[in-house]
Amino acid sequence: MSRIGKKPIPVPKGVEVQVNGDQVSVKGPLGNLQWGLSPGIQAKVDNGVVTLTRSSETNKLKALHGLSRAEIANHIVGVKQGYQKNLEIMGVGYRAQAQGNSLTFTVGYAHPVTLALPKGVEVTVDKQTLISLKGIDKRVVSQSAAKIRTLKVPDVYKQKGVKYIGEVLRKKAGKAGKK
User: Fold this and answer.
1) For range 82-100, the mean pLDDT
2) Which of 45, 46, 56, 54 lies closest to 20 in space, CA to CA?
3) Could you tell me if 81 and 53 are in contact, meaning their C-beta atoms sit under 8 angstroms apart?
4) What is the pTM of this model?
């Protein structure tokens, strides 16, 4: 039983939600987003509240019910407030540089690494080591941050690399010297 899927989604002021068949479109002050509902999932908007129902009790449809509810709720928050992910580059000589819609990294490789960001993601770089990603789609912003992090995952011994701000890294002790 999907407890998340059953919860109604309140629609704040300034946000419009429209259901056209299997498409749910959310429009707000920051932009527009759409989500396609899976077959067997229906959405309804009544009195500023979005509710989702499913046609059967199969396990796959139960999972899609909760997923659809979570995605629509994320879209509503995204067009109203937006999402932000912050990353930090740690290491001597490690840095990033924003050039339009792409980032160029110097993170210990023989050559700089350039990464193009998807449409809808804004990036700012402070002090060459702090990266801030902003956008209205939580999925796209989080995926972009994860892709940046995989360029140089923090080392467990020296802790050099790209990490999320607030992420706690576990440092391992090095090899003990022979006596």
Assistant:
1) 87
2) 45
3) no
4) 0.81
Number of domains in the chain: 2
**Containing structural domain, residue 10:** 3-80
Is residue 129 assigned to a domain?
A: yes
The predicted pLDDT at position 5 comes to 78
Q: What confidence tier does 179 reach under pLDDT thresholds 50, 70, 90?
A: low
**Cα 125 to Cα 95, 153, 159, 166, distances in angstroms:** 9, 19, 21, 17
Check residue 114 and give its pLDDT: 87
CA 35 to each of CA 1, 41, 52, 75: distance values in angstroms, whole numbers, following the listed order? 22, 12, 13, 8
CATH code for the domain of 99:
3.90.930.12
- By three-state DSSP, how is residue 81 classified? coil
In a domain, 179, yes or no: no
